Amino acid sequence: MGVAVAVEDLSKYFGKQVVWEGVTLTLPAGEISVLLGPSGTGKSVFLKTLVGLLRPDRGSIWINDQDLPRLSERELYATRRLFGVLFQDGALFGSMNIYDNVAFPLREHTKKSESQVREIVTEKLEMVGLTGAEKKLPGEISGGMRKRAGLARALVLDPEIILFDEPDSGLDPVRTAYLNQLIIDLNQQTDATFLIVTHDINTARTVPDNIGLLHHGHLAMFGPREMLLSSNEPVVRQFLNAQRVGPIGMSEEKDDADLQEEARSGEELGQLPPIPIQLQPSDGRSRRAERTPGQWCRENGVEPPPGSFEGRRADPDPDPWDDRPTITLPVVRRPA
Ligand SMILES: Nc1ncnc2c1ncn2[C@@H]1O[C@H](COP(=O)(O)OP(=O)(O)O)[C@@H](O)[C@H]1O
Ligand SMILES: [Mg+2]
């Protein structure tokens, strides 16, 4: 069931610049977590620190009883194989066709024969819906297909942890919806622990089991999706609901004068929008980390915003499928 990643009091500086300090969170094994935050708050630096491409200045990253920052280069090299990473631009080699791009980590890190490589590459390309695109160069396919090729390459070493850096950047809303469905389906099929950095509020609201928010050099909050979507903490509320009212300004923090002016202008926050139900795997099975809609709110005595979890009963359901939307298309196989 995947592996948990426990981050303890992690800090990263570049010279005098604080990227973030004192970050503590646990990515639960096999669950999907989303990391949000304004641009430049160090989300990409956080992912690179997790995989060991950057060293933190303080703190621990525990995986399988190993503290990553304390490992030697050689131990770290081995531990890195637990990770699959989808970088922002897909990071494909432009002169290699899709097949060779996806085969690359296998040829580099394993002693598999070419026929074994073929079997694995074919399987992963099928998982991401790219069968038939093997001979294409990255420049000859759409942005959405490049992301999926990058994802297939991230999958070939059967990672326990998959990190996605803005997988939806540059994609239109329809492609984003397909990609999100693919992510849910892969999580169901692979069992791995997922961390997704995104700016897409709809993704953040419907895809993850957990949400974290980096803001102003700190982790403002990390926890179950329902906790953040019902939170009235100003930064969390502003970000998850894409509001102008709140502590985050156009280019930097609003100062006290700005905030007082905002309070005077009487712009209202209003009611939180309803918490949507989570996106479900397209094969009709339940998510790995399935929780009853509203469970966290009930267990913690939090009244969810009116209209939350529409389309699902809030109580444990003997037949959990009867009121779920049916998805009939084999979504993961559709070409972009
Ligand atoms: N290798 C690096 N050396 C120095 N500064 C860096 C490096 N990588 C990122 N930064 C700085 O760290 C901050 C966070 O960057 P980043 O993680 O890319 O933000 P985000 O992904 O949240 O938009 C930025 O100010 C960026 O300029
Ligand atoms: Mg980034």
Report on this model:
The protein is of the alpha/beta class and 336 residues long. It has a domain at 5-222: P-loop containing nucleotide triphosphate hydrolases (Rossmann fold, 3-Layer(aba) Sandwich). 32% of the residues lie in helices and 18% in strands. It has 11 helices and 10 strands. The protein has helices spanning 43-50, 73-80, 98-109, 114-127, 143-155, 173-190, 201-206, 225-229, 234-240, 256-265, 295-299; strands spanning 5-14, 17-27, 32-36, 58-63, 66-67, 83-86, 161-165, 193-197, 210-215, 218-224. It has a 6-stranded mixed beta sheet with strand order 6-7-8-3-9-10, sandwiched between helices. A 4-stranded antiparallel beta sheet has the order 2-1-4-5, covered by helices on one side. A hairpin with a 2-residue loop joins strand 4 and strand 5 (66-67). Helix 3 (98-109) crosses helix 4 (114-127), helix 3 (98-109) packs parallel to helix 5 (143-155) and helix 4 crosses helix 5. The chain is globular, with a radius of gyration of 21 Å. The two termini are 31 Å apart. The relative contact order is 0.14. Magnesium ion binds next to helix 1.
Task: Explain the layout of strands and helices.
Elements: E1 5-14, E2 17-27, E3 32-36, H1 43-50, E4 58-63, E5 66-67, H2 73-80, E6 83-86, H3 98-109, H4 114-127, H5 143-155, E7 161-165, H6 173-190, E8 193-197, H7 201-206, E9 210-215, E10 218-224, H8 225-229, H9 234-240, H10 256-265, H11 295-299
This protein binds adenosine-5'-diphosphate and magnesium ion.
Magnesium ion is lined by residues 43-44, 165.
